[in-house]
Specification:
- The protein has 17 helices and twelve strands.
- The protein is of the alpha+beta class.
- The protein has a single domain, classed as Cytochrome p450 (Orthogonal Bundle).
- The strands form four sheets. The protein has a five-stranded mixed β-sheet. The protein has a three-stranded antiparallel β-sheet with strand order 4-12-9. The protein has a two-stranded antiparallel ribbon with strand order 6-7.
- Strand 1 and strand 2 form a beta hairpin.
- It starts with a helix and ends with a strand.
- The chain binds protoporphyrin IX containing FE (HEM).
- The site of protoporphyrin IX containing FE has 25 residues, from helix 12, helix 13 and helix 17.
- It holds the Pfam family p450.
Length: 402
């Protein structure tokens, strides 16, 4: 390795809290829109820090996700080689799969899930409140809510949900603390086997679930084959589970760290819609690791030339704090209406599950504030321990009290 390579800052940065990471991004963003870094494994690449340039990388097809699945490509999180997942495809394959999947995730379709999401959330909140006066909100709320919703979407039988969740947790802690690559591989294999069986069962006995509807989905005479459906189900689990856990945990941290902030929602639940968007903007939810792309040709961006073949990381969390786009970007403003945050990405890969994630986060807040319980953090925010070296940063635990 040359001296020039070792002199570059190493990304991901070594930080202990999301605030420290944001401070690093803020310093770099003040200097340049795009900066060069060294990635794990010695590759050099580009960090993109400002809103306009992050948006360009997310939307401009000269930056490819599919190229990231090549065996020698640099990566920040494991990518299943040869996987035909939506997240890792470029057009035209991406266009075809997305068209088949997207009608099940429209705002209208997702709203039909609201009564059941409300029921699941009420069950979790009421059991937590009934069990005492303190709880870990990660274990009691943030983890079980999204996985229960995903299990029901896919039609995983209640008796099989605990096992399904265990496999999901093993696959998704890769790169994080206590990660065990062998256990993750084994769990991914078990999940794929389980999904194959589940799809067969749905084919034989169609249900009321998303998997059945995707199995029946037709667009212009085209449909998903069993392998595509299995990969899509796996993608929904991977993209929809710990992202939402992370978002729900951050949402609660930022609302409860200031009791007046939480009280303002209890007093005026109309604020919940903008409060959820503000938490998505303000929090370090999607770490950006999963959004790495490879330039397919030389591209001028933010004053530098990105060469064909180079990795590019659009740092969504940095873009969401760009002072040139967001007034008082480092302040939480629950009533912020002009909020073009990029927490769900942009362009053709814009989060397929955004409407569902928003529904879950809104219902969680609606359910909590409706109980009118004076919730507060049980630990000062600067004493929280964080899982940061993962694609889905979140507090290890989130003690709350009432
Ligand atoms: C608050 C929670 C969530 C956040 C912050 C989030 C964030 C994102 C982001 C940033 C992307 C784009 C990645 C890129 O362009 O590189 C994405 C894509 C995606 N998300 Fe989400 N997501 C969340 C929840 C969900 C849920 C609940 C589901 C499904 C049930 C889901 C399914 C997907 C899928 C399938 C993609 C790939 C879309 C494509 O490539 O066309 N996500 N998400």
């Amino acid at each position: 390795m040359t001296e020039a390579v070792t002199a570059l800052p190493a990304f991901p940065f070594r930080v202990r809290t999301p605030g420290e990471a944001l401070d690093e991004y803020s310093k770099l963003r003040a200097e340049a829109a795009v900066t060069r870094v060294r990635l794990p494994g010695g590759h050099e690449g580009w960090l993109v820090l400002r809103h306009a340039e992050v948006r360009t990388v997310l939307t401009d097809l000269r930056f490819s996700k599919e190229a990231m699945t090549r065996p020698d490509a640099p990566r920040l999180i494991p990518v299943h080689r040869g996987s035909r997942s939506l997240v890792n495809l470029d057009p035209p394959d991406h266009t075809r799969l997305r068209k088949l999947a997207s009608r099940e995730f429209t705002q209208r379709r997702v709203e039909t899930l609201r009564p059941r999401v409300e029921e699941i959330t009420a069950g979790l909140v009421d059991s937590m409140l009934a069990a005492g006066t303190t709880a870990d909100a990660v274990t009691a709320l943030a983890l079980p809510l999204p996985i229960t919703v995903i299990c029901e979407l896919l039609g995983v039988e209640p008796a099989e949900q605990a096992q399904f969740r265990q496999w999901g947790d093993k696959v998704l802690t890769v790169g994080g603390p206590g990660a065990d690559a062998d256990a993750a591989r084994e769990a991914a294999g078990a999940l794929m086997g389980y999904l194959t069986g589940l799809i067969e069962r749905k084919r034989a006995r169609p249900g009321e679930d998303l998997l059945t509807r995707l199995l029946q989905a037709q667009e212009d005479g085209d449909s998903l084959d069993a392998e595509e459906l299995r990969t899509l189900a796996m993608t929904i689990l991977i993209a929809g589970y710990h992202t939402t856990v992370s978002a729900a945990s951050h949402l609660l941290v930022h609302l409860l760290e200031d009791p007046a902030r939480y009280q303002s929602l209890v007093d005026d639940p109309e604020l919940i819609g903008t409060a959820v968007e503000e938490a998505l903007r303000y929090s370090q939810v999607a770490g950006g690791f999963g959004s790495l792309r490879i330039a397919l040709e030389d591209v001028e961006l933010g004053g530098v030339t990105i060469r064909a073949g180079e990795p590019v990381i659009p740092l969504i969390n940095s873009a969401n704090r760009d002072e040139s786009v967001f007034a008082e970007a480092d302040e939480v403003r629950l009533d912020r209406t002009d909020n073009p945050h990029l927490a769900f990405g942009a362009g053709i890969h814009f989060c397929l599950g955004a409407a569902l994630a928003r529904l879950e986060l809104r219902v969680l807040l609606e359910t909590l504030v409706a109980r009118r319980v004076p919730l507060a953090l049980g630990t000062p925010v600067d004493e929280l321990r964080w899982h940061l070296a993962t694609a889905f940063p979140r507090p290890a635990e989130l003690p709350i009290q009432w």
